[in-house]
Design a protein that fits this description.
single chain; alpha+beta; four-stranded antiparallel beta sheet; 4 helices; 4 strands; globular
C-alpha cells in the first residue's frame, strides 16, 4: 500500500483495514524503511514513525515537517530510552517490529510531507 513515503495518506484512507488488528499487519503494508521511531506513553499510547534518520531530521528547516505516521495502540507500550542502545534510542529495528507487532491498532494519523 505504501510504496513511497508520500503514500502514507493511504493508511489513513484505509484505516478501517487496520483498526483492532495487530500492528504487524500495518507494518507489512509499509515498504519504505522506517528509520526513526518514538513511543509516547500517554493514554492512549502511540508510536510515531519517520522515514528519515536523526541526522536528516536535524538538517531539515524549522518549517519542513517530515512525513510522520502516528499509530495509536490499545495496550501500553513498553518503550524505555534507557534500555535502548546509546545514540540509537530512536532507531526502529526488526526486533522492535517483532516485540511490538502484536499490539492492537486503534487509530492512525499521518502528517508532514516529503
Amino acid at each position: 500500500m505504501v510504496q513511497v513515503p508520500n503514500d502514507v495518506y493511504k493508511l489513513k484512507t484505509n484505516e478501517q483495514l487496520f483498526i483492532d488488528k495487530p500492528l504487524k499487519n500495518l507494518l507489512k503494508e509499509i515498504k519504505p524503511k522506517i528509520k526513526m521511531a518514538d513511543a509516547t506513553r500517554n493514554f492512549p499510547d502511540y508510536f510515531s514513525f519517520r522515514f528519515i534518520d536523526r541526522e536528516q531530521h536535524r538538517k531539515r528547516g524549522v518549517n519542513q515537517i517530515p512525513i510522520v505516521i502516528y499509530v495509536y495502540v490499545k495496550e501500553e507500550i513498553d518503550w524505555h530510552y534507557e534500555n535502548r542502545p546509546k545514540d540509537q534510542e530512536l532507531v526502529w529495528t526488526k526486533e522492535d517490529a517483532e516485540k511490538y507487532g502484536e499490539l492492537t491498532v486503534i487509530r492512525i494519523r499521518v502528517g508532514g510531507k516529503e
